[in-house]
Design a protein that fits this description.
alpha/beta; single chain; 10 helices
Length: 253
Amino acid sequence: MTFKDHFSGHAESYASFRPRYPSRLFDFVATLPRRRDLAWDCATGNGQAAVDLAERFARVIATDASERQLALAIPHPRIEYRRALAEDSGLASGSVDLVAVAAAVHWFDFPRFYAEVERVLAPGGALAVWTYDLVQISAQLDPLVRRLAREIAGAYWPPERRWVDEEYRTLPFPFAEVAVPALWMEERWSLDRFFHYLGTWSSVNRYLQANGHDPRELIRRELEEAWGDPDQPRAILWPIMMRAGYPVIDSAA
């Protein structure tokens, strides 16, 4: 099973230290399809989005190409986890009411994936894809995060990262689009928790593999000084970028 695998090598930290999507995101995507019988959470990772979808749909089939990610998936009575490629889901044609892709569509083969979406969607079914940008914390901390992301480890992002940097605005999306609300994630984390989150970036792990030392250490001292009391939680925001819509032939869903 061939796919662009940037996270299996640190699946445990990914499952432990990534932020959670807000409830209002799932409330919104649940309004898109005509029915709520079955949602497909494509590239589910550890099932983070699947669990919230399962609170709003009768069933969720959550697929991922990474066996290691699926081994850490969150169990839920209405979720069935399967190993499958995004472009070859194995789902029945016309069976899915919502296809959801959280922070992953930019890794896919777009023509093949979108063809698969159109194949599996039921009449009135919808597609929603989303990701999130760099964190927003404070005027002192934000430049350090940007320095790590763009200067220190910038050359180690996979090329598909460009779609995230361009806020999904340029992402190919051959569907009849609908307006989406302003969305963001918010957490309150200690410095240690935030430092672990930075370690889940694919660029940080690729830098470490290439150079033998952790790029986070190059900003650690300044990060500690700007944070203050390391045990004092700080509010952390991530802007969410979403595209959503219907197959063009079914745009009146």
